[in-house]
Amino acid sequence: MKFYKDQPGVWCLNRGWKFKETDCKDLPCGIRHDDIYDYTKAGGAKGPAELSFDDSDWKPVSLPHDWVTGKSFDAQASPNHGYKKRGTGWYRLKFRLSEEDRNQQILLEFEGLSSKAFIYINGTLCKRQFYGYNSFCVDITDMVCFAPAVNLLAVRIEADAWEGWWYEGAGIYRNVWMVKKSPVHIAYQGVYVKSEQQADGTWKLDVETEVENSFGQEREMKLEAVLYLDGNKKQELPCVSGTVPGYEKIRYHQSIIVKQADIWNTENPVLYEVRSVCSVTNGEQAAGPNEITSPDTSFESQDYLNTRFGFRTIRLDADTGFWLNGENMKLKGFCCHQDHAGTGVAVPYALKEYRIRLLKKLGANAYRCAHNPDPEILDICDRLGMLVMEENRTFSSDEDTLAQVRGIIRNARNHPSVILYSIFNEEPLQGTLRGGRMAGRLRRAVHEMDSTRPVLGAFNGGYLEEEGAALSLDAVGINYNPMRYDEFHRKFPNIPLVGSETASAYMVRGEYENDEERHKIASYDESCAPWGDTHRDAWRWIMERQFVAGGFIWTGFDYRGEPTPFEWPSVATFFGTYDSCGFPKEACYLYQAFWTDEPMVHLAAPWGQGSMPGEPVKVLIISNCQEVEITVNGRLVQRKPADRYQPELIHVPYESGNLKAVGFRDGKPVAEHTLTAARKAYALRIETSGTQLRGDGLDALVVNVCAVDEEGNVVSDADQTVSFELSGGAELIGTGNGDPNSHEPDTAPYRKLFHGYAQAVIRNCGLDTVYIRVTAEGLKEDSVSLPVRRIPHIPYVEEAKDTVVEGWRMYHQLLDRRPDTLFSADVNDRNSFEPIEFHGRPQSEFTGKLNKFGVYQTRLSLTENHGNRYLYFPDIKGQVWVYLNDEQAAERVLQTLGAMKVEIPAAFGKTGICTVVIRNQNTENREAGICAPVILSEDNDLTPEE
Q1: Integer Cα distance of 512 and 535 in angstroms
Q2: What is the CATH number of domain 187-309?
Q3: What fold is seen in the domain 326-575?
Q4: Structure confidence at residue 941 as a pLDDT band (50, 70, 90)
Q5: Is 752 helix (H, G, I), strand (E, B) or coil?
Q6: Measured between alpha carbons, how far is residue 935 from residues 838, 882, 908, 944 in Å?
Q7: Who has the most CB within 10 Å: 123, 725, 801, 909?
Q8: The two domains 187-309 and 601-606+610-676 share their CATH topology (first three levels equal)
Q9: Whole-number Å distance between alpha carbons of 916 and 103
Q10: What are the pLDDT digits (tens) for 450-475?
Q11: Closest by alpha carbon to 764, among 684, 690, 687, 706?
Q12: Mean pLDDT, the chain, as a whole number?
C-alpha cells in the first residue's frame, strides 16, 4: 500500500467509480463509414469507454471491489470457484486534472484486477493486462486533458476464463493510485537497494536508481540519497549527476559502507529507509514543444522516493536447510489464498494484517503467496517479521510472461521478508525438456533483476527427471509426497529442498464427528486428502530431516471454492488451519504445540455438547509440555508424558462440569485449559480487531460476535441469525461465519452463528464515531463505539460528475455570412468538419477574424427523459445561435462573452444533431469560439463544476 509522504504526488483512485456487470463492447453502434472511421482513431473507442456514454443506471462503488460477492450461489457454476459465476463487467471514473498538472508525468498504478483487464483513458485503449494477480502501471501522460476538460478512465474486466482452480473473484479488487511526477523523476519502482555483509561485519549498501524523463527536452539532474533509521539520518550516499535525454530512462549507482547496522529478523524486524531525491533546475532551459515554462526562473523540480529495506543475510543449503543471519531455522510456513469471508478477494490492508498476525500467533515464520503476488502482503510481512515465498502464477517463457515476472521481482526485491521466488506451481511440463528450458529462462529473468534470492518451483512430480525443471533452478519445492524427500536428496544431494506445500488435512471448526451426508469433518486430525497427510504427519516428515529447509502447510485459512472432498452444497474448502473468518480450528493448537516454546495445553473435544452422562467423549490432548494431567471436576483421570508431535487421543466418560488439562515442565504446572459445559445462550458479545479506525478511507476492522451463556462461556451450538447495524464513519463490506456449507449472501448485514461465532468486516468511510450494534432473536444485544482518528492521509481524486458532450467537429473554414440553411457532412466525409476539443481557450482559427462565422456540430445522445434537460456552455465567446435538429433552440446576440444555457425540448427525442454557429464580434481581443467542455444536465440552476 502507498504510505503517506513516501513519495510526492500520490492520489488514491478508490472512490467515485461506477460499475455494471455487462458485456457491452467498445464498438460503435453502426457500421457506416463515419462510425468505423472514427472508431479506428486514437480516442475512438465507444460504448462505456466513451466519455458521453450513459452510465446513469450503473452502481456507485468504492475499491477494492469484488463483484462476485454480490452474486448468489449457483449449483451450475464451477465448484472450484465456489459455485458463483463471474462474467464481464465495466468500471468508469470521471476526473479532472488541474492546469498545474500539464507538465507532470501522470501514472496509474493498479495493484490487481481479476482477470483480463482492458484499460481505457479518454477512449484510447492504453493497456491490456491478462495476469489477474500482478501489479502494473499505465503511463497516461500523453492521453489526458486538463481543466476544465473531464477525463474518463474506463476498465473492462473479462472474468469468464480461469487463471486458477480456486475462487478468484472478479473486478478491480485491489487499490488504484494516481501518481503525478515532475518531468524528470524516479521511475516507477525505480530504486533497488541491495545490502551485502562484508567479511569484517560491515555492510556494503548499493542503491540503483532509474531516472526517467517523460518529456522531450534533455535535462541535467542530480541524485542524492540518505540512509535513515526510525526517521533519524544515519549516513549520506555520494551525490551523482547526469544528463537525462528526452523520453529516456537512465540508471545511476550509489554505494557506501555501513559500519554498524541493526539486523532485520523474524523477532525484531528492523526496517531502514533510503530517501532518494532527484532534482532538476529548469529555469535556464527552454521548454519542450509541449511544455509550459515556469514564470519563476529559479524554480527547481524535485522528486523523491522513500524505499524501505532491511539488513539481513539468507542462505539455502542442500544439507542444513535455511539460514537467516547465520542462524539455522526451519521455515514454519502456511500457504494462503487471498480471499476472506464476506469480502471475497477485495481484502483491505488491515484485514490482511489481521490474518498474518493470526498466523504469527501459532509460531509461523513464513508465508507462501499461493499463488498471488500482492504488494501489501510484502509490506505487512516486512513490518511483522514474516518470511515470504513470492510466487508467480503463469508458467511460460513467452515475452509477456517474462515481462510480468520481471514486474513481480521489481516489486519484491527491496523487501527483506522475501527469501524465495517460486516461478510455478504444479505444472504438467515440470519434468520435461520443455519445462526445464522454460524454467531456465525464467530463472535467468529473475536473476537479471535480483541475484540475491534462490529461485525454485513448486513440483508435484517430475523432480527426479534430469531433463526437467529441477536441474534448471536454484532449489526445488516438493508439494506433498514427503516419503520422496529422502529419494530426492540421495539423487540430487547438492540441490536445496523445501516442502513447498504440505498436509492438505480436512477439518470443520466445531465438528467432532464425520458426517458425509451433511459434509462435516471431525477436528481430531484424522482426515486428509488422498495426496496429503494429517497435520502431525506432514510436519514430522519435515522436522525429522535437517536437509528439508521447512514446509508450507496447505492452508493457513479456509478459502472459497475447491470444496474437496465434497461438492454442492459445499462452497468452500476444508483445508484451512483457521476457518475463512480466522476463527481457530483445532489444527491451530497443533501448530502452536509444534512451533512454539511458550507452555501451552489444549483439549479438543465436544465436552457438554449433547453427550449423555457416562457416554465416552473423544478427547485429543495437544501440548508442548513434558507432562499433562487430565481431571474431571477435580478428579484425576490421568497424568502422562506428552509428545508435542504426536498428541494423545483418549476417551473420557462425560459428566456435567469441567474437563481440565494442566501442563507440566520439570514437575511444575505451567499451562492449563478447561472445557466447561455451557448453558443456554443468553447474550451476544462483540470483539473487534482494534479500538479505533483511521480516518483515511482505507482502514478496516474485523467485528467478531459470539453467543455466550450467563457466565460468559461461549455456546458452541448457538446458531441464531445475528444482525449487524452500523452508523457513523464506517460501512459494511461483508459478513461470514466460517461454515463451508453456508449459502447466505456475502454482503448482507446479517449472518447465522456457526458453532457460536459470526463475523462482519467494516471499513472507514468518514470521520464520525462508529457505532456497532448486534442483535439476535432471544439474545441480549451488544454494542460498541469506536472513535475515528483524523490522520494525514493520501488525498483522493474527486469524481467529476458532469456529463460532457463529446464528438464536436468544426467546419473546416470560416464563413462570411451566417448560413441560411444548416448543413452537415455526408457520412462518407470526415474532412469537411474537423474534430475539435475545448480546453479553456478559443479556437485559433477565429483569432483576429472579426465578423466571420464558424459552424460546430455534434450528435447528442440522451438518457430517458426524467424532466427538463439543458446544454450548458460554461465559456462561449461571440454571437451564438444554437440549433437542435435544424430547429433554432437559442440565440445570444447582445453579448459576446460568458456562459450560456440552452433548454432541450422534449420533442428532440433521444438522439439528434446539435449545431452551434458563432460570429466573432469581440472587438477587444478579436477572439471567438467554444472555450470549455459543453455540459449536459437536468439541473436548471447548473453552474460549472469548479
Answers
A1: 16
A2: 2.60.40.10
A3: TIM Barrel (3.20.20)
A4: low
A5: strand
A6: 12, 14, 17, 8
A7: 123
A8: yes
A9: 33
A10: 999 999 999 999 999 999 999 999 99
A11: 690
A12: 94
10-181 homologous superfamily: Galactose-binding domain-like (2.60.120.260)
Mean pLDDT along residues 347-359: 99
CATH superfamily ID and name for 683-789: Immunoglobulins (2.60.40.10)
Grid coordinates given for 616:
465416552
- Phi–psi pair at 380, nearest 5 degrees: -65, -45
Cα 425–Cα 431–Cα 436 angle in degrees, nearest 5: 85
pLDDT of residue 939: 65
Split at pLDDT 50, 70, 90, the class of 291 is: very low
Return phi, psi of residue 165, to 5°: -105, 40
What is the C-alpha separation between 898 and 290, in angstroms, rounded? 28
State which fold the 601-606+610-676 domain adopts.
Immunoglobulin-like (2.60.40)
The arithmetic mean of pLDDT across residues 87-106, rounded, is 96
Tell whether the model's pLDDT for residue 288 goes beyond 60: no
Domain 803-937 architecture: Sandwich (2.60)
Query: Which of these, 700, 706, 683, lies nearest to 759 by C-alpha position?
Result: 706
Question: Checking phi first, is residue 624 left (phi over 0); if not, alpha (psi -120 to 50) or beta?
Answer: alpha
* Alpha carbon of residue 785 to chain centroid: 28
Listed by start position, the domains of the chain span 10-181, 187-309, 326-575, 601-606+610-676, 683-789, 803-937
Place of cell 539481513: 312
Q: Is there a contact between 619 and 605 (Cβ–Cβ < 8 Å)?
A: yes
- Beta bridge mates, 918: 854, 880
| Residue 284 grid coordinates | 535556464
The single-letter code of the amino acid at 53 is F
Tell me the C-alpha distance between 538 and 529, whole Å.
12
pLDDT band at 886 (very low <50, low <70, confident <90, very high): confident
pLDDT, tens digit, 9 for 90 and up, residues 412-432: 999 999 999 999 999 999 999
- Tell me if residue 441 falls in helix, strand or coil: helix
In 72-231, where do the E strands start and end? 87-95, 105-110, 116-121, 124-129, 136-139, 151-159, 176-181, 184-197, 203-213, 219-229
Greatest Cα pair distance in the chain: 111
